[in-house]
Design brief:
This is Lysine exporter LysO family protein. The chain crosses the membrane at residues 20-36, 48-66, 78-103, 115-138, 190-210. The protein has one domain (45-210). Helix content is 75%, strand content 0%. It is built from eleven helices and no strands. The longest helix has 25 residues, at 130-154. The protein is globular.
Length: 212
């Protein structure tokens, strides 16, 4: 048994496994999921939501077993600062995108300030413009995917708490497991609060912008 473990540790397979990063796993999973969805009749519509709830549940368990109070301490003022930075960053990005891509300022702001909430942004903006509604859906959906791949890389160069802003509103659910894994469980609560505040603001901000 010991000999077999030694062989594995020094095998080519072990070296390959060590080099496979979370980013690679995410890409393989995405490609595999696309293939299954395209070439099979299996319906995972409800499974995705159940798996998401399960991940959040497991994060809660891990949070309790580590140090929940320590995680809450990490929130502090950053719980308000990060959402403010996210909204400000979204506005700046919209102002840059307007002349760069020729998008009307109203739609540029609406798409950007949706901060990753594609299921709300797409249908809401589509009532004013089908074209920009589709763009809003795709851009905000891609933000979620980008965060899952980009957060592990971002925390190597930037503060772990600041990098949470990449996820926008998704930091309270779908991208929170990524924050927990690569930022640490102490940043899980901050990620959740950041997402909750943005999710509370977007339904009010979006209609106001679209009425411009």
């Amino acid at each position: 048994m010991i000999k077999s473990q030694f062989i594995f540790k020094n095998s080519i397979l072990k070296k390959i496994v060590d080099k496979i990063s979370f980013t690679h796993i995410m890409l393989f999973a995405l490609i595999g999921g696309y293939a299954v969805g395209k070439y099979t009749s299996i319906d995972f519509a409800n499974t995705y939501e159940l798996m998401l709830y399960l991940m959040i549940f497991l994060i809660g368990v891990d949070l309790a077993k580590s140090d929940g109070l320590k995680s809450i301490k990490h929130v502090g003022k950053m719980g308000l600062i990060l959402p403010a930075i996210s909204i400000l960053g979204a506005v700046i990005a919209a102002l840059i995108a307007t002349p760069l891509f020729g998008i009307p300022i109203k739609y540029s702001l609406a798409i950007s300030t949706s901060v990753g909430w594609y299921s709300l942004a797409g249908p809401t903006i589509a009532t004013y413009s089908t074209e920009y509604g589709l763009i809003a859906f795709l851009m905000n959906f891609m933000r979620e995917i980008f965060t899952m791949i980009g957060y592990p890389l971002a925390v190597k160069k930037f503060p772990k708490d600041s990098a949470i802003t990449l996820g926008g509103a998704t930091s309270m659910d779908s991208t929170m497991p990524v924050v927990a894994k690569f930022g640490g469980t102490e940043y899980t609560m901050l990620s959740f609060v950041h997402g909750v505040i943005l999710s509370a603001l977007v339904p009010f901000i979006l209609p106001l912008i679209l009425m411009l």
